Amino acid sequence: MKSRPARAWALGLLAVLLWAPLAHAHVQQGQAAGFFTGLGHPVSGLDHVLAMIAVGLWGAQLGAPAVWLLPVTFPMVMALGGMVGLLGVPLPGVEVGIATSAILLGLAVMSALRPPLAVAVALVGLFGIFHGHAHGTELPAGQSALLYSMGFVMATGCLHGVGIAVGLIHRWPWGQTVLRAAGAVVTLAGVFFMWRAVA
After folding, report:
1. How many Å apart are CA 135 and CA 170, to the nearest integer?
2. What is the mean pLDDT, run by run of 10 residues, along the chain of 199 residues?
3. Within a domain: residue 16?
4. 145, 86 in Cβ contact below 8 A?
5. Domain with 76 in it
6. pLDDT the model gives residue 5
7. pLDDT at position 68
8. Which of 41, 55, 102, 164 has the lowest tally of Cβ within 10 angstroms?
């Protein structure tokens, strides 16, 4: 029985490692076009990757209906934040908001926090605005905003899916320990991102 969650864990990590360039926070303008730029953008920065996977981990810990409601809420609200960014509307503290999302989502996973569903959805939605705005402001000049947005929403859904797949190990005592450790790692990374954002 332990082989299935171990395979899911390994496949999830492999997907992230193969997908995310190591040293870049965000895709630079002009590197790719439209849909593919959007598809690559969420996985081009560890801050985004960890927060989005943490949404899936937390949803899996909370169970139904949160396991699907959180990963649906995040990209929907993120798309709204992306549109605001595409329109050039400023949003103060975007990088601080992204770092805060990693810290708080990591803490939620680490502590197996179980707030009312509405609170969890509102928190995830709030963080989605910051992540979406960051994506929206980095649309390369002359590329399709629609295709770019579709790309980053789809990539976000995939990252949530990785988090959910890994999060299913919470059914076993050893899996709960692993998830709490993963939450701690996300939180510590979020603290680093916060230090970088305010430095």
Report:
1. 31
2. 53 46 40 72 86 95 94 92 90 94 96 96 95 85 81 90 93 94 96 92
3. no
4. yes
5. 33-198
6. 53
7. 92
8. 164
| pLDDT value, residue 44 | 80
Q: What is the pLDDT of residue 102?
A: 96
Residue 28 lies in a domain: no
Burial class (CB in 10 A: 0-12, 13-18, 19+), 10: exposed
Tokens of 86: 């595409």
- Residues 62, 66: Cα–Cα separation, whole Å: 6
Distance CA 35, CA 71 (A): 21
Domain count within the chain: 1
Which position has the token pair 């503290």?
93
Would you state the structure tokens that stand for residue 61, as one six-digit string?
């810990």
Contact 12, 125 (CB under 8 A): no
The 3-state secondary structure of 66-120 reads HHHHHHHHHHHHHHHHHHHHHCCCCCCCHHHHHHHHHHHHHHHHHCCCCCCHHHH
DSSP secondary structure letters along 117-170: HHHHHHHHHHHHHHHHHHHHTTPPTTS-HHHHHHHHHHHHHHHHHHHHHHHGGG
Orientation angle between helical segments 46-62 and 94-110, nearest 10 degrees: 40
Burial of 65-94, coded b for 16+ CB within 10 Å and e otherwise, reads ebbebbbebbbebbbbbbebbbeeeebeeb
